[in-house]
Every structure is written in structure tokens, then in C-alpha cells.
Amino acid sequence: MIIGDLLASRVLDHDGGGLGHVVDVRLALELRDDDADPETGDDVPLSQGALRSDLVGQAEVVGLLVSPHNGGSFLGYERTGVRSPWMIASLMRRMHRGTFLVAWEQVEQIEEGTITLAQGFDRLDPSLH
Amino acid sequence: MKRLLGVALGILTAIGGFVDIGDLVTNAVVGSRFGLSLVWVVVVGVVGICLFAEMSGRVAAVSGRATFEIIRERLGPRMAGANLVASFAINLLTLTAEVGGIALALHLASSVEPRLWIVVAAAAVWLVLWRVKFSIMENVAGLLGLLLVGFGVALFLLGPDWGDLLAQAASIGQPPGGQSMGSYWFYAVALFGAAMTPYEVFFFSSGAVEEKWTAKDLSQNRLNVLTGFPLGGLLSVAIAACAAVVLMPQSIEVSSLSQIVLPVAQAGGTLLLAVVILGIVAATFGAALETALSSGYTVAQYLGWSWGKFRRPAKAARFHLTMIVALLIAVGILMTSVDPIAVTEMSVVFSAVALPLTYVPILVVANDPEYMGEHVSGKVANALGSVYLVIVLVAALAAIPLMIATGAGSA
Questions:
Q1: Residues of chain A contacting B371 with CB distance shorter than 8 Å
Q2: C-alpha closest to that of B401 among B180, B174, B182
Q3: Which of B83, B144, B190, B251 is most exposed, with the fewest beta carbons within 10 Å of its own?
Q4: C-beta atoms surrounding B293 within 10 Å
Q5: Contacts with B, A 47-86, CB within 8 Å
């Protein structure tokens, strides 16, 4: 399976009710010891990490981002609290209001174009922090 | 001393590299028909390209990612794929116009049939892309492009009524007698597209990666853009003013390169003409290199291929192959005897149509602290960026209706 098979799929709850569409797949990169700041233990920002791409470990699927209104891209606004530039940010937030993250473990079934979630799945906050 | 020289070189290259066939043709056409009444659009376009190039240079320097890598990452594969198809097609149109422009300029200097020069020009562009180092390629084309200052010299030699030119420049929204309002706005969009062309940004951001910029190079980036582009914009204005002084009173409508340089020949004779033709060859050659590279950059960055002139061709084979194919298509189009001036006029209008496709993702990413850390856009950049978002969208939406309504400005 590739991510392209999942993107834009319809998402249904356990009883077949429509929840929206997959707008993104959230991945986590395995952190290696030397990726973290030695003093604070924090993850190093991507802007620095981009220059050290040889240190990236394995990727793991965290879950799916589901938008109830729109199957298009979120331009990255789901990850952070960024509100600028105001026009684009507010348009994106409006188009994708109610977007949630669902953990990969709570995905019950994947068919072509349709994804069914497990009963009692959790709507997680889509932001990174 | 060496550092000062580097700064000067960067600025001079930005000036010389600003003007391409689109600016040349559009400014001359506009000058001959509307005088300087559209010069405000050049100002709007230059401020816009400064803003846009500064943002994309900053994003590339801080995150190490060029424009199309960001478009792919932010828009997802499908929307970014549609964006790639549109951007690539319009960039190809611009490349065709630039190669045609080299051939026209060489034809003017030699009277050898332009179709022969097309092949020579395209082969020379390919050879430079294959063999010449990025920085040398950029600096030589940019410095020789400075010879276009000959248009400014010609303007002074013509001794125009400066008061009249200023009055024309101040008559915003008032086309001179005999010109329709529809055509006026059509050429406003074309002039805007000529100043803010998407390839400049593909090239500028990828160039920052080629030259291995980091956050430390940001002040140099800002200086190059903020001084070089406005001075390059002055060259555009000089081209339009020459046409306004010589061609407009005689109702000569520009349809060939020989008409564009007519004021120069009239004011400065053969010597100044030779200087300006050399400048045109350098400017169009430089822009042909940049658009050919942009065709490789966009496709390679979207598909995740290795790219860049800092790699040897064998290490970025598909990137080089894409550029070769783009050049061959451009030659093929020109060989149908299509008028390169007409191709140029199309390319600037469609540039305006395609601009939002690259502008919006850059504007968004320049605000993302995950990418930019402390170098996110400030309040001023965002306020200006939002104003230009509206301008860019309006120009893109108005371009095609205006083109249809005015018969591409002929009404």
C-alpha cells in the first residue's frame, strides 16, 4: 500500500455513516539519540534537521487526518497554530473545520476508496503540539 | 574588499538578469500604444517580484527546499501534479519565447535567417547548461545584460519633453486617445505578468539551493533583490519611454524586434544599436538558461529526482534529460514559423494566469515556524504579501476574459 491509496478516501464510522475524507497521513520519524537537543532533550526543528537528513530514522504511521467538509489540501495549517497570512489561514480553517486525527490502530478496514473506523474511535487533536 | 565585490556582483547580476524577452516586447508594445500611462504597473510588478523573490529565497535558504518541493509537500500529489502541468506548460511557452528572442536578436545583427539561428541558439543554451558552472553562467549573462542600459542612454540622447513623459506617467487609468479601456487593462495584466513571471521564482529558489545558501546569506539575498530588481525595473521603464517618445507619435505598432530597437538606432546610431543588440542577446540567453533550468527544476522537484547543476550531469540524468526535451519542444514550436513576438505576448499573459499557483504555497510556507524557525515572515512582509495575494488573484482571473474581450489587445 502507498499513501496515494489512502489520500482522498471516504471515511466511514463503524455503522457506515460518512465522516469525511482523508486529507493527510501523519507519520512520525523515529528519533535517534543525536536528533534531540543534548541540553533540553527537545526535538530539533525541521529547519535544522533538513541539513542533517542522514540522521533520520525509520518512519511510522501515526494515523489519518480526516476533514469532514473538504478532500483538498490543508496547506499544513492543521499542524500548527499559525494564523498568518490571515486570508489564507482563515479560509483553510473554515474549509477544514472539524478536522480530526484518528489513530492508525483505530482503522478497522481499508477498501479501495473507502476506510472504515473501529467502533468508539477517538477524535484526536490534529495539531502537532 | 572581496566581500564588497561579491555584493556588487550580486546586485549587478540582478539588474542585468531582470529584463527578458517578455519585458522587452511588452514594454515596447505598451510604450508605443499607451505612452507611459501604464508605468505604474511596472512599479507594482517590481515591488511584487521583490516580495516574492525575497520570500522564496528566504524559504530556500532556511529550509533547504526549493519551490516545487514545497508545492508538492503542501498541496499533495494530485493538486501539485495539476499545478506542475500548468506551470511546466507556461514555463515552456516562456522558454520558447526566449529562444526565439535570441534568434531574432542575432538575425538583427547578421541578417541570417532567424530559423537557422533558432537551432544555433538552442544548441548554445544546451551546451552552457551541460558544461558551464552555475555561478559563471549567471554572472556572465547578468553582466552583459546590463548593456540594455543603452535604452536609457538612447532616451537621454533623444532629448524628450520630460514634463510630458511625467504627465503621461501620472495619467493612471487614462489611455491616450484612440485606445480602448479594455486593451489598456489587458496590457496592464500583460505587463504585470512580464514583471512577475513564475520561472523567476523557480529559478531564484532553486538557485539558492544550487549556491548552498543558508540563513547567513539572507541579508545578501535581500540586498540583491531589493536593489537589483528595482534598478532592472528602471531598464523596463526606459524601453517603454523610448517607444513612447519615438514610436507613439508616428503610430508605429510594435510587431518586431527591429521596431523595439528603432529608437536606439535613431538616437545613438550603429554603435549604440550594436551595444543594445548584444544586451538583448545576453538578456534573452540568460532568461533561456533560467527557463530551461526551471523546466528541469519543477519536474525533478515534484518527482523527487536528483537535480541541480552542482551535480555532474550523470548524477542528475533525468533533470538534464528534462531540460533537453524542453529545449527540443521549444525549437519544434519555433520551427513552425510562429512569430516569437506573438509567443512572447501569449507567454506573459499566461504567466499572470499561473502566478497564484506558485505564489500561494510560498506565502504559506514563509509563515510556517516548523520550516522557518525565527525567519518566518514579519508583519510588513505579510501585510504586503496579502495585498499582493489579492492583486495576483485579480490579474489571474481577469487575464483570459480580457484577452477574449479585446482580441488579445487588438481592440
A1: 46-47
A2: B182
A3: B251
A4: 29
A5: 47-48, 50-51, 72-73, 75-77, 79-80, 82, 84-86
Distance CA B278, CA B144 (A): 8
SS3 for A40?
Answer: coil
What are chain A's domains? 3-117 (2.30.30.240)
Nearest by CB: A7 against B76, B363, B364: B76
- Would the CB atoms of B370 and A79 count as touching at under 8 Å? yes
| E strands, A31-120, in order | 59-67, 100-103, 107-111, 114-117
Look at A7 and B371 and tell me if their CB atoms are within 8 Å.
no
A87 Cβ under 8 Å from any chain B Cβ:
yes
Taking an 8 Å cut-off on Cβ atoms, the answer to whether A85 and B364 are in contact is yes
* Chain B residues within 8 A of A24 when measuring between CB atoms: 76
Half-sphere exposure of B210 (CA within 13 A, CB side): 24
Task: Give chain B's length.
Answer: 411
B225 in Cβ contact with B54 (< 8 Å):
yes
Asked if the Cβ–Cβ distance from A73 to B63 is below 8 Å, we say: no
CA-closest candidate to residue B16, choices B150, B145, B207: B145
| Tens of each residue's pLDDT in chain B, 411 residues | 677 887 888 888 888 788 999 999 999 999 999 999 999 999 999 999 999 999 999 999 998 889 999 999 888 888 899 999 999 999 999 999 999 999 999 999 998 888 999 999 999 999 999 999 998 998 898 899 999 999 999 999 999 999 999 999 998 888 888 888 999 999 999 999 999 988 888 998 898 899 888 888 888 888 888 999 999 999 999 999 999 999 999 999 899 999 999 999 999 999 999 999 999 999 999 999 999 999 999 999 999 999 999 899 999 999 999 999 999 999 999 999 999 999 999 999 999 999 999 999 999 999 988 888 889 998 999 999 999 999 999 999 999 999 999 988 886
List of chain B residues whose C-beta atoms are within 8 Å of the C-beta of residue A77 = 364
Burial class of residue B168, CB neighbours in 10 A (0-12, 13-18, 19+): buried
Smallest Cβ–Cβ distance between B370 and the set A45, A75, A85 belongs to A45
Tell me the C-alpha distance between B194 and B213, whole Å: 27
Query: What span, in angstroms and rounded, lies between the C-alpha atoms of B250 and B247?
Result: 5
CB B67 within 8 A of CB B313: no
Asked whether the beta carbons of B67 and B301 are under 8 A apart, the reply is yes
CA A50 from chain centre, in angstroms, equals 20
